[in-house]
């Protein structure tokens, strides 16, 4: 292995997006501390459609599920829609094997229209990964629309939060080769 295997599950339906801009800074910061191999799963590009059972998942979806399940670190990143994550993001996790994420470190990240959307980290994302018995990392990252210029993260406070989150996460990650 040449580095930490990181899978990003991106719940944003738009490309480019603020959510992807946030993830790019997270990966860049993490990559400055440990060698990593990152893969990004854009749930809206998978064509989940009416897939409700794992056994019915097309090969592309199965490969994405395995990538998330086998990663050393999962970054769950989503925009906030009406107070929670979008349905397609949840549909992806509905297909993840129930015990595949036990004790897996999960870094939570979200973007929203305003600071009041930050509650999605605690009230929607942590319970979702609690079901899987995953290890949600203590410091989550939220950025609101005003923190960006287009999709470029500008707010130094959010950059600082990313640094804190990533440095904290290192303690929970497996040693890299």
UniProtKB/TrEMBL annotation:
Keywords: Flavoprotein, FMN, Oxidoreductase. The keyword Transcription does not apply. It holds the Pfam family FMN_red. InterPro entries: Flavoprotein-like_sf, FMN_Rdtase-like_dom, NAD(P)H-dep_FMN_reductase. It comes from the Bacteria. Residues 5-147 form the NADPH-dependent FMN reductase-like domain. Gene3D superfamilies: 3.40.50.360. This is NAD(P)H-dependent oxidoreductase. It comes from Amycolatopsis halotolerans. The lineage of its organism: Bacteria, Bacillati, Actinomycetota, Actinomycetes, Pseudonocardiales.
